[in-house]
Specification:
67 residues; 97% helix; mainly alpha
């Protein structure tokens, strides 16, 4: 009976550890998703900044040509 209790206890420990790993995996997945979203947003902002920079460069050239 003692051995059965030990095995039951070990199974309970394994189940608890498995649950903790599942929670940690979910948190990691959510964090990775947040990083991916931030990277996507940063890419969009960089593209917009490049477009504005090109517009300003062209505007400057046209103003210099007109002067």
């Amino acid at each position: 009976m003692k051995r059965l209790n030990e095995v039951t206890s070990q199974i309970g420990g394994i189940a608890a550890a498995s649950e903790q790993q599942s929670i940690a995996t979910k948190e990691i997945s959510e964090s990775i998703e947040q990083v991916a979203d931030a990277a996507s947003h940063n890419t969009l902002m960089a593209q917009q900044n490049a477009s504005v920079a090109m517009y300003l460069q062209n505007l400057t050239r046209s103003k210099r040509s007109a002067a």
